[in-house]
Amino acid sequence: MSVCAAALLATGCSQTTSSPSSGGTPVRGAEAIGYVRMDDLVKKHPLYPELSRLDDDMQALQFKQLAASGAAPSLPPDQLRKEQAEINKEFAAATERAKAALKAKQDEYSKREAEAIRDAIGSAGAIGGAPGAAAVGNSVNSEFKTQARSVQAGAEKNLDAYRKQLVAHDNAALRALQNSLNESAARTYGTKSEQVQKAEADFALAQAQADASERVALNAKLSNLVLDDATREDARKQLNVLDHKEADGLAAMKNRDSATLAALRKQLRDSTSAELDRQAAAMQAQTLAKINKRESDVRQQLVTQINALPVPGPNGGPMIPANVSPAVRDKLKALHQKYQDEFTKDANVTVAQFNKTRDELQKRMALITGVDVGGQNASSQQLDALEKQRRALYDQMLSQIEREVKIIAARRGVGVVLSQVMAPSGGVDLTDDAEKDIESLHE
Amino acid sequence: MAFAPATLAADVTDVGYFDQQAMAGIPRFVAAERQLKAYGDGLNREYAARVRGVKNQDVQARIMQEYKNKMVDKQRELIAPLSQRAQIAIASVASTRNLSVVVDKQIVIYGGQDITQNVIDLFNGVGDPVPPVNTPPPSSIGFVDTSQINTLPKVKQAYADFQKFNDDQRTAFQQKMRGAKSDADRQQLMKDFQKSMDDKRKQLIDPLSDQTKNVIASVARKRGLILVIDRQSLIYGGTDITTDVVNGLK
Question: Would you list the domain boundaries of chain A?
Answer without folding.
Answer: 8-439
